[in-house]
## 1
Amino acid sequence: CIGGYLLQGGFGWNGRVLGPACQSVIGLDVVTADGDIVHASETENADLYWAARGAGPGFFGVVTRFHLRLYRCPRFLGNVVQQYPIEALEDLFRFAHSVRHEVPRSVEFQLMMRPGGRLSRRPHIEVFAPVFADSYRQAQRDLRFLTDHPISRRATLKLPLFPTRMRWLYAAAAWSYPDDHRYSVDNMWTRAPIDQLLPGLQRIAQTLPPAPSHMLWLNWMPSTQPQPRADMAFSMEDEIYIALYGAWRHAADDARYDGWSTERMRELAHLA
């Protein structure tokens, strides 16, 4: 699946620092519509190179090889995990919205609204704050916006900063998207005021299908500190990313759950 990841954008761990994966594509070997095999980069076939990074399934060639920029892995990878009752929804999302310009780029601050799960059968909101730093102390400093905030007192579960590994982060993410399920997914970028977003967030909470369905909120790109992007077809990002994942096991439930994500997103479309 790396082709879609590298062509369409590619949001992965430490992406707030490194940007979307397509920005780190430094060259491609491409079979064109004429059957020619060419190399595309900043200096060769630059038009193909521009189009490939962000075109996704619309790219008009077949990529046979990607050439990628590599990065040093941060010395310390850590995570903070908290869980809140669904009754804390308004206060928690107001907090997440209020710190959107303060969260260090080293932290991927995200909220997952669930109807239930391993940690609690009741509807709840999980907070994850993976951090990519050069030391434990730096990670502690970067996470103070969360750990020192009064909102943390409302958490029913708190795991303080603990070391993690990249494979554990991938495994934790994969747990939310199990195989052998049917999915209906929709998403949006937004910078809308929280007062305008809250009615839609509350409606999502009231209509969440059974687990593993969930909503993801990710603080992404502070508009006050825009990150330079390469000149490429990819262009769609903003302060906040909201995604809905409806998931169910049986085809007999298609009519019941299939429209949930698109209907809720349609209600928020004017804020996207």
Note: The mean pLDDT is 94.
## 2
Amino acid sequence: MIIRGKIPETESLISIIVEHGTIIQVHPYQKGTLCDFGGDDLYLCSGFFDPQVNGFAGVDFNSPYLSPEGLHRAALSLASTGVTRFLPTLITSSHEKMVRQLRIIGEALRSDSLLRQMCPGIHLEGPYISPEDGPRGVHLREFIRLPQWEEVERFQEACEDRIKCVTLAPEVKGAIPFIKKAVAHGMVIGIGHTDASEEVLEKAVQAGARLSCHLGNATPRPSPRYQNPIRKQLSMDQLMASIIVDGIHLHPDAVNNYVQAKGVDRIVLTTDSMAGAGAPPGRYTLGDLEIEVGPDRAARLVGNSRLAGSTLTMDRAISNVIRFAEMDLRSAIHMAAKNAQRLFPEARGEIVSGCSADLVLFEYQKELVVRSTWIEGEKIF
């Protein structure tokens, strides 16, 4: 199979030869040579990675009705947006419910080769977060609890050691030693749903935290003008920051400010998508929560204005960040496909000989439009 397209970094036209799921050759396009897919006006890059997906295409990963078939369906739909790797994400719930969801996801990954290829791990967003209004977002206070390593061990047992990321509030009792232990066991710790002081944030980074999870959301209201968790995390070069660029969670000007503060290499695009992403407006669930997705595509608690995940897709996120932060295509692709590899090497993707053919072919004028997606050389979309 030969695929032709422009590399966003250089705009140079290349041809890729793929055999048995692996990139065999990469060379400059020679006029007159044929290809199976692509063309002179299309772009080609490695697949996108989303570290926080609560659901997609009508499938709620936190629902008691989740099934391996539903996960497979959601993964196929994610591939249509250029995503080739993602972390299924579970939010705060009771111990029993979280164990149940982890078992379902673990079973799906064990039995489904596509899901194994697309899911390098699982993300726990909670339950070890701030119980205070504002920082806790829509997470149910009754299930928020202090970090317990023994509980995480039981979680890992339920999903066959697939938890790769835990987002927590570092100011809660026991969080700093928990971070040290989790990092020693190969997990990425995200800071989120927090009202931590500058001193505590410093301690969290010293303990090994490396990610600001959906920075700018689930924060105290009101916040001090200068000394607050957002400004402190923006100033910390040790922390990468995931951001939701739907124009709802963050104002476009804030996105621009965050990119300028962190730098292109420290921003990771995420969607924080829920079941209403890739699906029409209507009512959906996010675990125990009932969510309304309106015509404006915002996902909010029924009868409440609070945001509950998003309906953003990664292709739209790339188009948005280009507009909001006035950046080039190359930088936006790095935020969607490359930067997170520093945190999650399992999500590695490169267009070089010997690498897995996890590729996205897309058109870009004013909007990014995915034309084809391959995972290990298999055309999924």
Note: The chain has a mean pLDDT of 96.
